[in-house]
Amino acid sequence: MKPPPRPLSVAEAAEILRASDAYVRRLLITQRLFGIKVGPVWGIYRDDLDSFQRMRRLPGRPPKTAKQAGNEKATRARINVERSSAKTDASRLKPRRK
Q: 20 near 14, Cβ under 8 Å?
C-alpha cells in the first residue's frame, strides 16, 4: 500500500505559486487555500494547491470578449442618442467663454 503524499510547507507552496510566504499564509487563514495546521506549522497537499491554481484568476485586467465589445458599441450608440436628444453633445465640443 502506498503511503499518503507528504504535505508541502508554506515556503514550498509559495515557490510553486511564485508568491510570498505571507501571501500563502493569508490564503490559508482566509480559507481560500485549504491546508492543515499542526501546531504552528501549515501543510498544503499538492492536490489542494493544484485546485487553487485552476480557480485562481490571472493577474491584471481580463481581456475583453467579442460579446463585451458588441455591448460596448451598443452602449456608446445609446449614449450618443441620449446626448443628442438632450442637446448636450454640442456643448461638450465647444470651449466655454469666460
A: yes
* In contact, 8 and 15? CB cutoff 8 Å: no
The closest of 4, 6, 18, 3 to 44, measured between CA atoms, is 6
Q: Please list the alpha-helical segments (H only) found in the chain.
A: 10-17, 21-29, 46-55, 66-86, 89-93
Residue owning grid cell 504552528: 40
pLDDT tens digits for range 13-36: 999 999 999 999 999 999 999 999
- The full set of domain ranges for the chain reads 10-55
pLDDT tens-digit map of 48-87: 999 999 988 777 887 777 666 667 778 888 888 888 887 7
**What is the C-alpha to C-alpha distance for residues 39 and 5, in angstroms, rounded to an integer?**
19
| Predicted TM-score (pTM) of this structure | 0.58
Residue 89 has a CB neighbour count (10 Å cut-off) of 14
